[in-house]
Amino acid sequence: MRYMELNNGVKMPILGYGVFQIPDHEQCERCVLDAIEVGYRLIDTAQGYGNEVAVGNAIRKCGVPREELFITTKIWISTYGYENAKKSIEGSLERLQLDYVDLLLIHQPFNDYYGTYRAMQELYKDGKLRAIGVSNFYPDRLIDLIKYNQVIPAVNQVETHVFNQQVKAREIMKKYGVQIQAWAPFAEGKNNLFSNETLNAIGDKYNKSSAQVALRYLIEIGVSVIPKTVNKERMKQNIDVFDFELTNEDMDAIAALDRGETLFFSHYDPEQVERLTSLVRKF
Questions:
Q1: How far is residue 84's CA from residue 72's CA, in Å, rounded to a whole number?
Q2: Where does the NADP-dependent oxidoreductase domain lie (predicted)?
Q3: Which end of the chain is less enclosed by CB atoms within 10 A, N or C?
Q4: At residue 270, what are phi and psi to the nearest 5 degrees?
């Protein structure tokens, strides 16, 4: 596994396993155990996914020393605000059965994320959070948060894949020392990513799949990835991307796939904002 150093010196695996859309506790626990057995050391969950308990059970049972694992979770909108955030973070630690998490993210740029970030900074200084960051923050809100807080976010997790490569956003994150991490690195199969002619042609040269080429490309441009699958064999395939390198010609061909726009939703779209902010969850 390759590691990257965050802006506070903490080392994070560049490739991890995400558990979004695995709400069934038994299945999620099995998947996390499978992922750790395969070799994943970064596990990405969230309050909003409803599976922190399952992830915690798997961590407890996996047999891998805690210090070898990198656990990420995220605070949901309905628990934002200074006091609420402190309580919700303690709740996440309890559900995960951990004394600390390696990375805590603000899940969405809505509600009182300033108060939330202040609480996160306190717990970061207390050692309960090894690193803190954000998710789904566009450049304008990311810069605003950076300018008025002491701790620069270590990570910004955003939609990133070959069809939306976040070129400008990556430039800004690099300027401020924020590590970009990709959710939906396969674009959830949209635009027929798994049968894309460009990716398949490149994959044929290295005996790799289109999915492996897509992950390798993101890694080579410095993007951390957290692919999700419930299939153990595909887990093995997704982590098997460190034994080949793309040529400049390969990189240029994949860069040309970029459409520079979301395939899911825009945080500038009022209807989408209304939908997201109406998802109130209790923890």
A1: 19
A2: 19-258
A3: N
A4: -55, -40
pLDDT beneath 70, residues of the chain: 282-283
Tokens of 222: 């410095």
In DSSP terms, 180 is beta-bridged to 156
Residue 165's contacts (CB-CB under 8 Å, 6 or more residues apart) are: 221, 255, 258, 260
Residue 124: active-site member: no
- The HSE-up count of residue 193 (CA atoms within 13 Å, CB side) is 20
**Residue of 17, 40, 49, 124 marked catalytic:** 49
- Both ends of the chain: CA-CA distance in Å? 33
Architecture of domain 3-277: Alpha-Beta Barrel (3.20)
- Say what the pLDDT of residue 277 is: 87
Tens-digit pLDDT profile for residues 112-165? 999 999 999 999 999 999 999 999 999 999 999 999 999 999 999 999 999 999
Please state, in angstroms and rounded to a whole number, the distance separating the CA atoms of residues 181 and 159.
8
pLDDT (tens digit per residue) in 36-53: 999 999 999 999 999 999
